[in-house]
Amino acid sequence: MITNELNTGLVNAVREKLPSKDNLANALMDILYIGKEAIYRRLRGEVPFTLTEAAIISRKLGISLDKMIGVSFQDNAVFDMNIVGSNKPLETYYSILEKQVELFHAVEEDENSEIGTSSNIIPQTLSLNYDMLSKFRLFKWMYQNENIRCKHFDELNIPQNMVDKQKEYARMVSRIHSVDYIWDNMIFSHLVTDIQYFCSIHLITDEDKNLLKEELFVLIDEMEALAARGKSKAGNDVRIYISNINFEATYSYLETSSTQLSLIRIYSINSITTQDPEMFRGLKEWIQSLKKFSTLISESGEMQRIQFFKQQREIISTL
């Protein structure tokens, strides 16, 4: 009896996770690499899914095992620690990027895909297009980590495959059907202050500082054009808000027909993610609630948009 209940719970959890157009049996065949008849025996309850099979399904579809067995821990959520290790930082960082890019590829054709983010730094979905800015982001984290020997900006060499993967990440985000950006009005000030600090202790040369400054001006032009259009280069909706209050952290969510993912940025370049539905609901509500304290500058709010980007250019000019 218990085995049948567990099997039914697993099947129901998979049904909820898959888009309605996907065939359940075919999807499980692709995940488990077993034949159609073996899958149908499991779906009919004649043969139970093994623990290994349940674990594979859980990892592939992001279904928590407690949901499969019908147990709910209301005050707990399972988080994926996307932490860049100090032993092989670039390799670990690349693997995290690769996993996120794969996720974006999987939902590329989903017309219900939606991203929301409240940022107290320049979103990496935009900054990863720029070699020097993305390099500085990594350098700042590596310099702070005492277990990594990277004591000067010039010492950090970013492999070309990582540069390409970062730009692919930014490109794939532009294909999300709908994006809400809520920006802290100090996002450029924070970054400029960081760059100035590392210049003051002679870890960034004047030449590299000027290159960073040039990229920041190009980035601000891109951001202003994006706000004026209200559309990504792929033609998808982008709404940009400027908050009148400051944020203590960067929060994001991704919602598709089959996925609800929450993300919280920690330790500069790292993040923790979860597919817990309650955590997702709370995070999305929190991000959307910030619109009450914010001004929409995409396609509307022209005066506020001009004023905001003018202020950001003045901040960049202090470099």
Tags for this entry?
319 residues; Transcription regulator BetR N-terminal domain-containing protein; 13 helices; 2 domains; single chain; eight-stranded mixed β-sheet
Polypeptide structure, described:
Helices cover 52% and strands 13% of the residues. The chain is an alpha+beta fold and 319 residues long. It has 2 domains: 2-68; 80-317, no CATH class. An 8-stranded mixed beta sheet has the order 1-7-6-5-2-3-4-8, with helices on both faces. Helix 11 (206-229) runs antiparallel to helix 13 (302-317). The longest helix is centred in the last third of the chain and has 24 residues, at 206-229.
Low-confidence parts, pLDDT < 50 over ≥5 residues? none
Largest sheet: 8 strands, mixed
Q: How many strands? A: 8
Element string (H = helix, E = strand): HHHHHEHEHHHEHHEEEEHEH
Overall form: globular
Strand content: 5-15%
Structural class: alpha+beta
Radius of gyration (Å) = 22 Å
Any idea how many domains? Answer: 2
Distance between the termini: 69 Å
The strand order across the widest sheet is 1-7-6-5-2-3-4-8
What is the residue-mean pLDDT, rounded to a whole number? 82
Q: Estimate the helix proportion, in percent.
A: 40-55%
Task: Output the number of helix runs.
Answer: 13
